[in-house]
Amino acid sequence: MGQALMAASPEARAALDEADAALGGGLHKMLAEGPVEVLKQTANTQPAILTVSVAAHRAFVQRAGKKLDGAPVAMAGHSLGEWSAMVATGAFTLTDAVRAVRQRGQFMQEAVPAGEGAMAAILGLEPKAVAEACAEVEKLSGRTVSCANFNSPEQTVIAGHADAVERTIALLKGRGAKRALPLPVSAPFHCALMAPVQPRLEAVLRGMFISTMAVPVWSNVSAAPNQDSAVAVRQLIEQVVAPVRWVETIEKLAASGVDTLVELGPGKVLAGLTRRIDKKLRTFSIEDEKSLDACVNEI
């Protein structure tokens, strides 16, 4: 994870070194060698993805140089990615952020015992239909299940108690869902079961130094731009239990005049979702030297 980018860019490598030092070592080895079972633990996944995303951003800024004059006009991130955006806009140092998200991951893991929570991606139904099914199951069962990520017009992720998620999946399949895919996650993110995380995360955030944000970050909670650091802190706390409003975010970015989006970090998931939301938007994904050069040259 991130190895090709680190080899190609001194700036990316420096970001990894900074994060590794902040966490007391071990990140280098985990990204290069795993094992996957360790990397998939959310207390490790979160700092790993944050680090690789920030490394990609720094490599992009250095390689693009003056070509980025006047850009970007905004930043956004999906769930954990909002933290990466906050680092990229200058609000948090990478050192502070990587320590904070490790704690965030630990808090999330501890909030719900293993096996009690679940998440699933529902494909082929409108978000309203998914939300209605979740509300029905909650009312009938007294258990938690709700929409966690509004990813695209036909992909909505649900989260909650494992039995309630299973019941909702069955209900939605009967109502025409094309597919319902259980997700291999270690906790049910972005639902009410994460409420115990909020006061603990707030204490961490209140102890961090926050600088002026260079450009607005579009919040998962509000699907709107924000450049006020105090508001950003409140939104990062609320984000833990609130759904990620990604469809609205992309639609509103396009309506504001944005025509090009650059995805920074491992994978191409956000670029794929963006194409399902608005095919007119240009999208690039940067995770290695080839994709980095292709993006810079095209822009």
Describe what is shown at a glance:
Helix content is 53%, strand content 15%.
What's the arrangement of secondary structure elements?
Blueprint: H1 3-8, H2 10-22, H3 27-33, H4 36-39, H5 42-64, E1 75-76, H6 81-88, H7 94-111, E2 117-123, H8 127-141, E3 145-152, E4 155-161, H9 162-174, E5 179-182, H10 197-206, E6 217-218, E7 225-226, H11 229-239, E8 244-245, H12 246-255, E9 260-264, H13 269-277, E10 282-286, H14 289-298
Parallel strand pairs: 1-6, 3-8, 9-10
Antiparallel strand pairs: 2-4, 2-5, 3-4, 6-7
Helix pairs in contact: 2-5, 2-7, 5-6, 5-7, 5-14, 7-10, 8-9, 10-11
Q: Total number of helical segments? A: 14
Oligomer: single chain
Provide the number of structural domains.
Answer: 2
Calculate the mean pLDDT score and round it: 95
Strand order of the largest sheet: 5-2-4-3-8
CATH topology of the largest domain: Malonyl-Coenzyme A Acyl Carrier Protein, domain 2
The level 1 CATH classification of the largest domain is Alpha Beta
Shape: globular
Report the order of strands and helices: HHHHHEHHEHEEHEHEEHEHEHEH
Residues in β-strands, percent: 5-15%
Helix content: 40-55%
Structural class by sheet pairing and helices: alpha/beta
CATH architectural type of the largest domain: 3-Layer(aba) Sandwich
Please give a structural write-up.
The protein is an alpha/beta fold and 299 residues long. It has two domains: 3-111 and 193-298, Malonyl-Coenzyme A Acyl Carrier Protein, domain 2; 117-185, Alpha-Beta Plaits. The protein is built from 14 helices and ten strands. The strands form three sheets. It has a five-stranded mixed β-sheet. The protein has a three-stranded mixed β-sheet with strand order 1-6-7. Strands 9-10 form a two-stranded parallel ribbon. The longest helix is centred in the first third of the chain and has 23 residues, at 42-64. The model has no long low-confidence stretch (mean pLDDT 95).
